[in-house]
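Worked example

This section walks through a single chain of length 369. The input is the sequence exactly as stored; nothing has been trimmed or padded.
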Amino acid sequence: MRALTSALRVLLLPVLVAVPLSMTVAVTAPPAQAEETGMLRVTSPVEGAIVYIDNELVGEAPITTYLSPGTHTVRVTADFYDPFVRRVNISRGRTTELTADLLPGTGTVEFIVEPPGATLTLNGRDTYPTPVRLRQLKPGTYRWHLEAPAHEPLDGEFEFQPGRNLLLVEQLESSSGRFVVTSRPEGAQVFLDGQLVGTTPVELEDVPPGVHQVLLDMKGYATMLRTVDTSDGSKGVVEVRLPEDGARLTVRTNRSDARIRLNGVQVGEGRSVRLPLLERGRYTLAVSAPDTPTVETRIEVPESGGAWWRARLGDDGGELKPFTPLTRSWYFWAGAGAVAAAGATGGVLAYNATIPDPIPPGDIVVELP
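Given that input, the structure is written out below as tokens.
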């Protein structure tokens, strides 16, 4: 311990001797392993200049501090002067000196953002890639917005006054793995990739990146399907207003073990599947069964009414095509009309058979009590 104290005294002695008596030097406390670090001494002819090292405030110049070996960023600022920024290399057991000669300025606002390259938007209009130093701003309040792929956006504001230097260091939170599903009205069941994950509003964590299928179902409203791609690490977001109108989809197959999928989500199985109301739109309909090729096509679901499809699965590749149910055919209703007409005629004949013949002229009618 005595050897370490003596070594520090020898190391600090030249620094203390070199400083004029009228100047106070700030020296940070030595780390536990001082021999593994280097020293940095920052001075400036501008009184009250603020010193930042690696974007962290360390005090006013002049200042002496211990740093780990390697490259560090030093920033020195003062009102009505342009910021002074330098990168310095610190060596183990050595002292590095840096003098910040500040030049007069009119004030700046500097954004340093993690991750680098995040987009800055000021007052909803002007955009800049970060890091960025803004000059010649007019006095006033500014609203800022930061965003970057696969990260949560961030909003804030600052007040700028001429001659002042502002440094804003922000870190955007990663949105990878997050998934949010909301609906109006709330309370819809949410299925993510075929698995029930809750009722809206739903917030999920640790969802693997990729293409996901989201199904929302609520009694009295049309079922909705959404495809969300989070392959780039972005947050999955589904915000919908559940429609009350929709159409029913009917799929008939030639296999009892057939599986019916819409946009990759299994919605039923068997020889005949009739889905509840579906939102109007285009969907990918696929029908599969063990040991046979899958048949797949794009279908259009109307705003109301129904859509009917028949799937034939087989070793020859099968087929999937629309069909018109019997109750929707003109000949069905023509036949039904004929049957109804025949029934009506028979009814008339039967009714007429119950009517007695008219009384012949000249007969006497006697009414019995």
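What to look for: The chain has two helices and 30 strands.
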